[in-house]
Design goal:
It is built from eight helices and no strands. It is mostly helical. The protein starts with a helix and ends with a helix.
Length: about 200
């Protein structure tokens, strides 16, 4: 492998490390302590965590295993390896930060804006190098194959919305769910800005 290619790959993985660390900071220091649910598999893991106290990162890895097994045959190796690294790193960072709990702000609106922006910026970096943090993004890629006329972002938004509705229904936290919509909107704008 040429040196230029090696340094390009090393830079991509460095960006994934930075992006997943930012994602974890936005989640663990702003959104999670204020009970602001996130979408995707992390949101499902957060719901299970609130019911069982099992670590969010470990739950995220467990929930992603079947998705990666299904995706292995359908998507390129580079995408899968990058996404596997992104998913594992974001899960590890979330659980490491959980060992040192910080609530950066108790203002829910501020948590939505700052946490959503940091999380979205981190995700944008991961997406920029062609990887993901797994979960809903993989499901959306499968859905796009069956329904190519539906926008990728729309599929993700529908799935994230279902997770937010489930959170509100299970815990009766309708106001937190509404804040989650704001955080999701801010995160999507941050992703768009990076991309």
């Amino acid at each position: 492998m040429k040196t230029g290619k090696k340094s390009e790959i090393a830079l991509e993985y460095l960006v994934i490390v930075l992006g997943t660390a930012l994602y974890a900071v936005g989640f663990q220091y702003f959104l999670y302590p204020n009970s602001i649910i996130v979408g995707g598999v992390s949101g499902i893991a957060m719901i299970i965590n609130l019911l069982t106290r099992l670590p969010v990162g470990i739950l995220t890895v467990i929930l992603n295993i079947p998705l990666f097994i299904l995706a292995w045959k359908h998507f390129g190796t580079r995408f899968l390896v990058g996404s596997l690294v992104g998913m594992l790193l974001s899960s590890v960072f979330i659980d490491i930060l959980a060992m040192h709990p910080v609530n950066a702000t108790e203002d829910m609106l501020l948590a939505c804006f700052i946490g959503g922006a940091i999380k979205g910026f981190g995700l944008g970096l991961v997406y920029y190098v062609g990887a993901t943090t797994g979960g809903v993004d993989i499901v959306a890629k499968f859905a796009r194959r069956k329904y190519p006329y539906i926008n990728f972002g729309t599929i993700v938004l529908i799935m994230d919305s279902l997770i937010i509705i489930a959170f509100a229904a299970v815990f009766g936290k309708v106001e937190s769910a509404m804040y989650a919509v704001i955080a999701m909107f801010v995160a999507s704008k941050a992703i768009d800005l990076v991309l």
